[in-house]
Amino acid sequence: MVEVNSETDFVAKNPEFAAFAKQLAELVATRKPADVAALSELGIGADTVEATRQKLVQKIGENITVRRFERIETDAKLETYLHPPGKIGVMVEYEGANPAVAKDVAMHIAFAKPRYMAKEQVAPDVIASERKILEARAAESGKPPEIVAKMVEGGLNKFLAEITLLGQPFVKDDKQTVEKMLKAQGSRLRGYRLLVVGEGIEKKQSDFAAEVAAMTRSAA
Predict the structure, then answer these.
(1) pTM of the model
(2) Which of 61, 89, 155, 180 lies at a CB distance of 3.0 to 4.6 Å from 1, suitable for a disulfide?
(3) Under a CB-based contact definition with an 8 Å cutoff, are residues 63 and 6 in contact?
(4) Distance of CA 134 to CAs 125, 138, 144, 154, 182, Å?
């Protein structure tokens, strides 16, 4: 999966923009670039990716950036999901015979956006920070220390379930977790990748007209 940013939805629907993004995804899959800088140096026809991007910017008249990509190479199976097309992308690496199960998990990820797959992967500092918050709240309850300890552990378990994919209630059946659903279906999740277009980008003003003019002068 490759995230390519434009300034407006109008450009994102442009056939040339879509074709450029598809070419990038194919390059990531087949050429295995280490990062965006390496991807930008690869060739598309007679030009590099970067040169092609600059030409597309000049033609469309709007800034276009290749921001990031995710790639999975596996001996297991892969399932993908886009929702809505071009806004959220999910890749699921799994074992099991039924691809529909993996598709459901990918849809769940797109909806719930879990921060981690399993509680064992949650960073220790994240757990420590949440524990401090829970301890402060529980201390204000005035309950005995042994009850406070149980309140903290219960709250921590709830927190870990909320931020981990396997611990979350399955979006199609909230009476069971994703982990239990997968087990019932004879499937096992190895990992996943999630990209949300524009996530984490700080909106800032830039002199785009000057940038285009500079690229035009450079091309001349």
Answers:
(1) 0.84
(2) 89
(3) yes
(4) 14, 6, 15, 10, 31
CA distance 127 to 155: 11
Give which of 28, 54, 59, 63 is closest to 42, Cα–Cα. Answer: 28
Phi, psi of 108 (to 5 degrees): -60, -45
CATH number of 123-163: 1.10.286
Task: Report residue 83 as tokens.
Answer: 């929702």
Query: What are the pLDDT digits (tens) for 4-27?
Result: 999 998 999 999 999 999 999 999
Rounded Cα–Cα distance for residues 145 and 93 (Å) = 44
- Rg (alpha carbons) of the chain, rounded to whole number: 22
| Homologous superfamily (CATH) for 1-71 | Elongation factor Ts, dimerisation domain (3.30.479.20)
pLDDT on residue 144:
93
Backbone angles phi, psi at 71, to 5 degrees: -140, 135
Say if residue 158's pLDDT is above 60: yes
Residue with tokens 């995710």: 70
Residue 40 contacts residue 69 (beta carbons within 8 Å):
no
Domains of the chain, residue spans: 1-71, 123-163
